[in-house]
Amino acid sequence: MFGLFKKKTTEITTPVNGLVVDLKEVNDPVFSEKMMGEGFAIKPVDGKICAPVKGTIKSVFPSFHALTLEAEDGLDILIHIGLDTVELDGNGFSSIIQEGQKVDVGELLIQVDLDFLAQNKKDDIVIVVFPEMQDRKLQIKSGKIQIKEVAAILT
Predict the structure, then answer these.
(1) Most buried in the list 18, 100, 135, 144, measured by CB within 10 Å?
(2) Is the dihedral of CA 27, 122, 143, 14 positive or negative?
(3) Burial label, 8 (beta-carbon count in 10 A; 0-12, 13-18, 19+)
(4) Would you name the residues annotated as active-site residues?
(5) Beta strands 150-154 and 10-13, pairing class
(6) How far apart are CA 103 and CA 151, in angstroms?
(7) Which distant-in-sequence residues (6+ apart) come within 8 Å of 139 by Cβ?
(8) CB of 139 within 8 A of CB of 155?
(9) 129: closest CA among 100, 99, 101, 154?
(10) Three-class HEC string of 104-150
């Protein structure tokens, strides 16, 4: 009977291979001060950005530097690739995903050329935030991580 009131748990896998860090380490106050919501960041070791949950693509920025997904449980997730990368007008990014598309955990969403970002003096940090997360707690697994490994748990 009490199981009916059990809080839902959502596992968020890393969208990119790399090193999970706290949002406070992001060199942009919009993210580090959590103005966009709670979340985590990854210092990537490659440019394959994959789905962190099973869900639906809600929006894709024309420059491919950011996208939003809706997890099956209704949680909104924003993935933002790099800092000030919108200024590149999509150069260094490629994707074939579309709004409304269903995706599985680990499915490739966007490719980003990390060398191109470095040449253009853009921070390549990948940021994952939950803009509308309410009344839930976030536990983050810090350290090295691979795609499909759980980076965070929402309870």
Answers:
(1) 18
(2) positive
(3) exposed
(4) 80
(5) antiparallel
(6) 18
(7) 152, 153, 154, 155
(8) yes
(9) 154
(10) CCCCEEEEECHHHHHHCCCCCCEEEEECCCCCCCEEECCEEECCCCE
CA distance 136 to 117: 34
127 C-beta neighbours (distance < 10 Å), count: 24
pLDDT digits (tens, 9 = 90+) for 89-101: 999 999 999 999 9
Q: How far is the CA of 51 from the CAs of 2, 4, 19, 71, in angstroms?
A: 33, 29, 17, 10
The pLDDT-based confidence of 7 (bands split at 50, 70, 90) is low
pTM for the complete prediction?
0.93
Looking at residue 134, its pLDDT comes to 77
* pLDDT, tens digit, 9 for 90 and up, residues 16-59: 999 999 999 999 999 999 999 999 999 999 999 999 999 999 99
What are 83's two structure tokens? 């800092």
3-class DSSP state of 63: coil
